[in-house]
Amino acid sequence: MRLLALILLLLTAGVAQATLPSEKLSDPALEARAEAIGRQLRCVVCQNQSIDDSDAALAHDLRVIVRERLTAGDTDRQAMDYIVARYGNFVLLKPPFEAATLALWLGPLAVLLAGGIGVGLYLSRRRTAAAEPKALDADEQARLDALLNEGDK
Amino acid sequence: MKRLIFILPVVLFAGLAIFFAVGLRRDPSKLPSVLIDRPLPALTLAGVRPGDAGFASAAVRGEPALVNVFASWCLPCRVEHPLLMRLRQEGVALYGIDWKDKPADGAAYLDEMGNPYRGVGNDESGRAGIELGITGVPETFVVDRKGVIRYKHVGPIMPQDWDDTLKPLLDTLRAEA
Known about the structure:
The complex is a heterodimer. By secondary structure, chain A is mainly alpha-helical. Helices cover 63% and strands 0% of the residues of chain A. Chain A is elongated. Chain B is α/β, with parallel strands linked by helices. Helix content of chain B is 40%, strand content 19%. The chains are: A mainly alpha, B alpha/beta. The A-B interface holds A 44-45, 47, 57-58, 61-62, 65, 84-88, 90, 111, 114, 118, 121 and B 5, 12, 28-29, 31-35, 100, 125-127, 130-133, 135-136.
């Protein structure tokens, strides 16, 4: 019985939202678009939550505004641009791919590549060293012979 | 060549260290304003008391001014208020926006603390705040004589901020054509 309750709880946990029932639009298609947009906008007060998840008053205001813009006929892009025009690119949870954010997007990949090349070079150098032992020069050959002869005695 | 490769991780680390040393010292709650060098959004707000003149962006012109967004429920606003009263006495043009506040509460706040503003409007819905990119109060915009936003100060204006940043900026803007 407890297992059933736990399963039910876990199943519903994923849909937690801060959007109040009074905010939701009556048109389900518009409401779905508004929620999708809301998931991509950062709550600038809480900063690590989207406006759909945040309980902050400002998040509420922004959710209402997104719904108003969609009801007025804006496309998803236009509604997001409206908010970005006032708060900047920081409000997008997925930063745009432009010159200023190039380092942000490509940085991890670049570091991974650099590390990968480093490891590759290291491994290949070890492999070549192991495959071709250096030939002994005259001095070393003499020492080796002396040691071997010593062992035979 | 080998030495160069050994030095590379150290150089990369030094680069990252500088990057983080600068970046992590910044305060993430102080968002840079997108409105810098753009005109003050056209806003018209009713006054906190019926019959008051209110706030109109069109009036913020002719001389460099400060547009201060505050609220009666905001504690840091009370902290910066005496400075604002002093600035008014010194002749600085101050305009106020009472953000997400009931007009009656805003009026009571000004009655209690004094009114340093040439014009103050009430923004109960918070829409004017969103036009300005406000994330909290107090925030203050420095607007030049042509009505263009030149600087945004997040948080209360402390005497240090006035002396070091805002006053020199206003002086520069006054000297502008």
